[in-house]
Amino acid sequence: MQVQSIDRVEHISAEDFRTQYYEPRKPLIITGLSKNWPAYAKWTWDYFKSIVGDKTVGVYNNQRAGAKTLVNGADDYIRFGEYLDMVQRGPVELRIFLFNIFQHAPQLTDDIAWPDDLAKGFLKKYPMLFVGGAGSVAHMHYDIDLSHIFHTQFIGRKRVLLLENNQADLIYRMPLTVESAASFVNWKEQLDEKNYPALQYARALTTVLEHGETLFMPGGYWHHMEYLDGGFAMSLRALDQTIGGKLNGLYHIAGLRSMNNLMIKVAPEWWYHYKRKVARQRAERAMKRLA
Fold first, then answer.
1. Theoretical Cys-Cys bridge with 132: which of 65, 95, 150, 151, CB 3.0 to 4.6 Å?
2. Rounded to whole angstroms, how far apart are CA atoms 128 and 107?
3. Is 193:277 a contact under the CB 8 Å cutoff?
4. Residues pairing with 5 in the sheet
5. Which are the contacts of 106, defined by CB distance < 8 A and separation ≥ 6?
6. Predicted confidence band at 69 (pLDDT cuts at 50, 70, 90)?
7. Is the CA virtual torsion 15, 17, 21, 25 positive or negative?
8. Pairing state between β 28-30 and 8-9
9. What's the rounded Cα separation, in Å, for the pair 167 and 200?
């Protein structure tokens, strides 16, 4: 796999961001975007525990979804405060994603500033919290609603691997999913190109996100994330600026996910293996085109 670093800036003008990153759909790290937010220093494990520690959340382990696992099906449920205690003791390979903490504590919206000068169409009712223990992994996928993401890291470090959506066949995308059949766990030390040979042709971007750094990830980008330390991040989502992008996102949510879940219920074992067979066939054809 050919890997390059993601561009980094401390600050960027709205015009430069629009012409150099937003419209070309190119990822960027903005290191100074959140430095003046109250959240930068205020958001800690103890603070979150004090305001929403009693809420029950779904947690996810590092295992890939089995044949009978529905899309976004949690592996267990636990009180948020208890989970945060586990993460701080660490390491624990459990993570939380798409937790709308603002529903339970709306005062948290006063701690951030929406970057409306950089993008339009923010879903301001749906900022999402992502929490992970050291060693937990978000396996390679792209977000099903195809929104643009401004992902700000708070506490801890996270290694990020990104690929443009047009790399899908080379990374073994499975049909009717937003998931890759290939494994990217510990990709930096040993990527499994033996079992997934098309990976050697893929072009990727990477970085390590640290406290206060914001990743702009355009809609549809594949991403694999590994928590190097226990930590949490917040994603602000903005709808695609084009009508086609919005309709494609709607299709993914209402059509693609529903069909995948239906097949999981009707023929779980057959569908599990069929998706992986099709992914390999598409990867082989992609390699031939590049030969």
1. 95
2. 14
3. no
4. 206
5. none
6. confident
7. negative
8. parallel
9. 11
Domains of the chain: 2-290 (2.60.120.650)
| Measured CA angle at 129 (ends 41, 166), to 5 deg | 120
Of the pLDDT bands very low, low, confident and very high (cuts 50, 70, 90), residue 125 is: confident
CA distance 182 to 204: 14
